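Record filed here:
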Amino acid sequence: MTTQLTVLVAGSTGMLGFKIVSALLDKGNLDIRAMVRSINDSNPENRKKIDVMKALGATIVEGDVMQPETLLPACAGVDVVVSAIGNNNVTVPGQKHLIDAARQQGVKRFIPSDYSVDYRKLDYGDNDNLDMRKEVFEYLQQSGLEYTLVLNGVFMEFITYMPLFDLEHQIFQYWGDGETPLDLTTTDDTAKYVAEAVSDPSLANTALSVAGDTLSSKQLKATYEQATGTKLTEKSLGSIAEMKAWIANKKASASSLEEYVYDQYMYAMVSGKGKLDRIESDRYPHIKPKTVKQFLSA
């Protein structure tokens, strides 16, 4: 008889974390713990999510990644820890604390909060947010914990927020030749793949790379036009080398990360440096990920 796995999800009230909890509960054969900072969260939206997760069968446990002493009881008896902590000032220290607690409590596998392009192929400085993932991954490797990375390119939900689109002026702008393939996946589908990865023994100490669709910048423009009926004017912004120099200048004068980080993500994609290898979107036949056209047409 197979022993039921116990899975702890950190960041369970976040956009992706909540979907991961839901996807894990849909499997029906897992013991799910949703970790929150406070069961009596004063945020109405978080409170609603906590109530929903509890009603669906999750056990709600308290734990704060910036208070390491709270993580040991949260990780007790857990087989797999899934982190869905967002990009903020706790991403690195918080996940390191979570890794430490998981190791001390004998957790078998750790899935870090990646859900991105293949940041392992990028250089430090290419993307400030992905630098944090690189640092956490290096710490995770040194911890001795078994791990699985889930890489999905860029979330489709962010397509129209990409620097490619200037919808106010109906312009599609791109760097390079516009032909480099870009990997995109919805958050719903990413959550489904995470739910499968937690109990897949062949994913030990490796990455699961998935993509609902892979399109070049120019193909993305054409797909957007077909799905929405909106014609966009095409505009070339320059070479990849010029893009890198432009981002460096923008970063030098920026007052916050948000002013340039989306351009850094775009660089990771259109340069080809963050391109996913060995995409296995068909690894679990019951998951039928949405294409960009399906997503935009919904």
